[in-house]
């Protein structure tokens, strides 16, 4: 079965440092997303990406966040200056286009800001 | 805006059926999904249903959709201890393909 791959599985960083979370979506999918889940809470939408640009972003996705698809396969989320409240599980997702639009999520990157 | 609601907790005995309920607000949602999350793990796609269907069955899983009431349910037959997890329902916005998640229902299966 196709899968979305995320690296690293766990990242510990100091407050104020930059982090880059990486994702390899499913190859023939066209829509890519980042979500986050603070421990014990809801899965929250951060940003969607289609046709090499951001199609939608939430209030959470402020100037500290950016996304990129640098080489046609990887999809990255950068947090410029991490805060304690950025500690969460970050999920990447990709969705195909067409009738059978399965939405697959990666296993997540647990980000811990200390 | 769109909202998805689920009850927070369900406890069943092993071998019984579990029914997890979900309500959503966006009547234009074309697809509705169920995901399973085990402790510390990612979101595993269990099944999804297209809005022109009332029911979808996949082995022990049955999804029922009442589009008029915007109500979705997931029935797990012969529930096993390995089914203990958090179950999320999600609706997909048609315009953006964005998924909106419920808060998740924690299913506890007692031996």
Please sum up the structure shown:
Chain A has 114 residues and is an all-beta fold. Chain A has strands at residues 5-7, 10-13, 19-24, 31-37, 43-50, 53-57, 65-68, 75-79, 88-95, 103-105, 109-113.
Protein model, in words:
The complex is a heterodimer of chains A (about 110) and B (about 110). Chain A has about 110 residues and is mostly beta strands. Chain A is built from no helices and eleven strands. In chain A, strand 4 (about 30-35) and strand 5 (about 45-50) form a beta hairpin. In chain B, a hairpin with a 6-residue loop joins strand 4 (about 30-35) and strand 5 (about 45-50). Chain B contains no helices and eleven strands. Chain B is about 0% helix and about 55% strand. The interface between A and B is medium-sized, with 26 and 23 residues.
> Main β-sheet of chain A: number of strands, strand sense, barrel status?
7 strands, mixed
How far do the termini of chain B sit from each other? 41 Å
Strand content of chain A: over 45%
Please state the average pLDDT score of chain B: 91
Helix content of chain B: under 10%
Number of DSSP strand runs of chain B: 11
Keywords:
heterodimer; A: seven-stranded mixed sheet; four-stranded antiparallel sheet; 11 strands; B: 111 residues; six-stranded mixed sheet; globular
Question: How are the elements arranged and paired?
Answer:
The complex is a heterodimer of chains A (114) and B (111).
Chain A: E1 5-7, E2 10-13, E3 19-24, E4 31-37, E5 43-50, E6 53-57, E7 65-68, E8 75-79, E9 88-95, E10 103-105, E11 109-113
Parallel strand pairs in A: 2-11
Antiparallel strand pairs in A: 1-3, 3-8, 4-5, 4-9, 5-6, 7-8, 9-10, 9-11
Chain B: E1 4-6, E2 9-13, E3 18-24, E4 31-37, E5 44-50, E6 55-58, E7 61-66, E8 71-76, E9 85-92, E10 99-101, E11 105-110
Parallel strand pairs in B: 2-11
Antiparallel strand pairs in B: 1-3, 3-8, 4-5, 4-9, 6-7, 7-8, 9-10, 9-11
